[in-house]
Design brief:
The chain contains 3 helices and 21 strands. The chain has a 5-stranded mixed sheet. A hairpin with a 2-residue loop joins strand 7 and strand 8. It is globular. The structure holds ligand MTE and molybdenum atom (MO).
C-alpha cells in the first residue's frame, strides 16, 4: 500500500498513511507467547519475551523508510516488480531498543561479521533463484552497521504499539538503508562468522556494481539521494500570475540533504527551494518553493537534491540498479492556465 505522497504535509507520517510492503501473508503473532531468539556467534544466547525487550534501555527517534522499489513505475523501459509511484516512502517516530544493546546483552564473539534478522513470515516469492519450499523473509547487516545507533528494534510507532501490518510485536528499523533491511515480525537474530547470502539479498534486493569493472552482485544498502515533488501532482492545473507553493521532501541514507533545487524550464535554470525545519539524521527533509508562473502553457517541474558529499540525482535510471534505487530526475507535468 502506498502512502499518499501528494498529501504530504507533516514531517511524521500518520501511522494509517505509512506505506506497507509485505511479501507474504501477514503473520498474526501473540505477544504473550512470542519470543525473540538471539543465537549463533554469541557468548550468551538469549530468548527474550516482549516484556524483557521492553525492560532494556529504550529510546524514541524518527527514521525515514523508503522501499528500494519506490518510483519503479517511472522507469522506462518498464521493469518487473510492485509498480510503486512516489508513495513508497514514509517517516515515523519509532520506540524501542538499539540492536547494539541486544547484541551487547548476548556478547558477540570475536570473528563475527554478520547479523541476520529473521522475520516470522514465509511464502512463495515466485521469482527466479528462490530456494525450494517456503522462503522466510530474512536480511542481514554487517556487524558494523548493526552496531550503529540508527539501527533499532522497535515495538512502538508514533506513540502506540506497532500495528500488525508494520511488524507487531517487534521489527527492525535500519536507519539510512532501504526498507528491505527493516525486517518486520522479527523472531530470530543469528550472529555469523561468514557473510550471509540469503535470497532477499542476492537474487532479490541486489544490484550490479562495477568497482573492478566487472559486474558484481551487491546487496542493496544505503538510500540514494532523492527529492520527490508532492505538489503539484502530475498534470495538475494551476493559474498563471499567482504564487504556487511547490513542495515535497528529500532524503538520503548515509549523509544529509545539503540543498534542493527546482527547475521549471526542463533543467536549464535552477533555483533553491527552502529546506523546512532542521536536519534530523536518517530522516527526510521537507522543502518548499514559491513559484509564480507568468505564462500559460505546459511545464515540466524538476526537483534535484544534493547531499553533503556533493552526490546528486542522475538524469536516467542506471540499468545496473535493475528495478531498484530509482532516483533519476523525472519531470512533473504541470498545466498553467491563463487568467
Ligand atoms: N518480515 C518482513 N519484513 C519486511 C518485509 C516483509 O515482507 N516481511 N518487507 C520489507 C520491505 S521490502 C520494506 S520496504 C519494509 C516496509 O515496511 P512497512 O511495511 O512498515 O512500511 O519492510 C521490510 N520488512
Ligand atoms: Mo521494500
Amino acid at each position: 500500500m502506498e502512502s499518499p505522497f501528494a498529501s504530504l504535509e507533516s514531517f511524521v507520517t500518520p501511522t494509517e498513511l505509512f506505506y506497507i510492503r509485505n511479501h507474504y501473508p501477514e503473520p498474526s503473532l501473540d505477544a504473550k507467547t512470542w519470543k525473540l531468539q538471539v543465537t549463533g556467534a554469541v557468548k550468551r544466547p538469549l530468548e527474550l519475551s516482549l516484556d524483557q525487550v521492553r525492560k532494556l534501555k529504550a529510546g524514541t527517534r524518527p527514521l525515514t523508510l523508503e522501499c528500494a522499489g519506490n518510483g519503479r513505475s517511472f522507469v522506462v523501459p518498464k521493469v518487473k516488480g510492485v509498480p510503486w509511484g512516489r508513495g513508497g516512502v514514509s517517516t515515523a517516530e519509532w520506540t524501542g531498543v538499539s540492536l547494539a544493546e541486544v547484541l551487547d546483552q548476548a556478547e558477540v564473539l570475536p570473528g563475527a561479521v554478520d547479523v541476520i534478522l529473521v522475520g516470522s513470515d514465509a511464502g512463495d516469492p515466485k521469482k527466479d533463484g528462490q530456494p525450494p519450499g517456503p522462503v522466510p523473509f530474512v536480511r542481514s547487516l554487517p556487524l558494523a552497521k548493526a552496531r550503529q545507533d540508527e539501527v533499532m528494534l522497535a515495538y512502538g510507532m508514533n506513540g502506540a504499539d506497532l500495528p500488525r501490518s508494520h511488524g507487531y510485536p517487534l521489527r527492525a528499523v535500519v536507519g539510512g538503508w532501504y526498507g528491505m533491511a527493516s525486517v518486520k515480525w522479527l523472531k530470530r537474530i543469528v550472529v555469523t562468522k561468514k557473510p550471509y547470502l540469503g535470497f532477499d539479498q542476492t537474487f532479490d534486493y541486489a544490484i550490479w556494481t562495477r568497482e573492478t569493472g566487472l559486474p558484481d552482485l551487491t546487496p542493496i544498502t544505503d538510500v540514494a539521494i532523492k527529492s520527490s515533488i508532492a505538489r503539484p501532482t502530475e498534470n495538475e492545473e494551476i493559474p498563471a500570475g499567482k504564487p504556487y507553493r511547490v513542495r515535497g521532501a528529500a532524503w538520503v541514507g548515509n549523509s544529509e540533504v545539503d540543498r534542493v533545487e527546482i527547475s521549471t524550464d526542463g533543467g536549464k535554470t535552477w533555483a533553491r527551494a527552502v529546506l523546512l525545519g532542521k536536519a534530523i539524521p536518517f530522516c527526510w527533509r521537507l522543502w518548499e518553493y514559491a513559484w509564480t508562473p507568468e505564462k500559460a502553457g505546459h511545464y515540466g517541474l524538476l526537483a534535484r537534491a544534493t547531499d553533503g558529499r556533493g552526490q546528486t540525482q542522475p538524469l536516467t535510471h542506471d540499468p545496473d540498479r535493475r528495478n531498484y534505487m530509482v532516483n533519476f530526475l523525472r519531470p512533473t507535468s504541470v498545466i498553467v492556465r491563463g487568467a
